[in-house]
Amino acid sequence: AAIVRYYQSRAQREPTPLNVLDLGLLHYLRIDLEKSDDDNLQASIDWMSKAADRDPDNVVCLQFLSQAYLLANQNAKGEEILARIIRTEPENLVAHHRLAEMAAKAGDFQRAVSEYKQIILLDPDECQWRMRLIDLYKQMYDKEESVEERYEQIKKELEKFQRTNPKDAMAHFDLGYAY
After folding, report:
1. Which helix (H) or strand (E) covers residue 171, if one does?
2. CA distance to 11, 39, 55, 78, 141, per residue, from 68 (Å)
3. Given this model, what pLDDT does residue 24 score?
4. 27 vs 128, residue with greater confidence
5. Distance from first CA to last CA of the chain, Å, rounded?
6. Are 23 and 11 spatial neighbours (Cβ–Cβ below 8 Å)?
7. Chain segment 84-138, per-residue pLDDT in tens
8. Is 145 exposed, middle or buried (0-12, 13-18, 19+ CB in 10 A)?
9. How far is it, in rounded angstroms, from Cα 29 to Cα 49?
């Protein structure tokens, strides 16, 4: 508790974006043992919001703030912050990944697929994005009666991509993972 009091007095005495963010991160990590997890999370949101107000282009602060909103099940606010990050840094993988996972969790598979396609364009050599996209396709179409038909369509798309990009190792990986 002493460390929290120290950072709290420092943030109140000198409310620079970094001092305020530090205090928000302490609550995010649930360092204040005198508070419940929910109270720590809300304090984290409050302090990180203040830091973001003082330094609106601080992407690190915005990323922590968006994650805190998501942990608090305040998805609309989390999405708003993620959109703000993407406006500042259109190639921010963390923001795109969080948006994709939020969409998937909400059952909005089309939006999740769209975000993962964007992520793959930004980071084409990372197989985890491609695997997650294929998994999303499976989730999407497992709920439909035409699973086999859609699976064949996905395989054809991947085979076509592999034929047009024969030297792309990831195209071969995608096809193998889909099988």
Report:
1. helix 169-178
2. 19, 12, 18, 8, 31
3. 64
4. 128
5. 53
6. yes
7. 999 999 999 989 999 998 898 888 989 999 999 999 999 988 888 888 888 888 7
8. exposed
9. 16
- C-alpha span between 138 and 96 (Å, rounded): 20
Mean pLDDT to the nearest integer, 143-166: 72
pLDDT at 30: 59
Residue-level pLDDT at 10: 66
Burial class (CB in 10 A: 0-12, 13-18, 19+), 1: exposed
171 HSE (CA, 13 A, CB side):
13
The pLDDT value given to residue 146: 60
Burial of 37 (0-12, 13-18, 19+ CB in 10 A): exposed
**Residue carrying structure tokens 């302490």:** 26
Integer-rounded Cα Rg, in Å, for the chain is 21
pLDDT at position 52: 87
The SS3 of residue 58 is: coil
In our burial notation (b when 16+ CB lie closer than 10 A, e otherwise), range 63-85 reads bbbbbbbbeeebbebbbebbebb
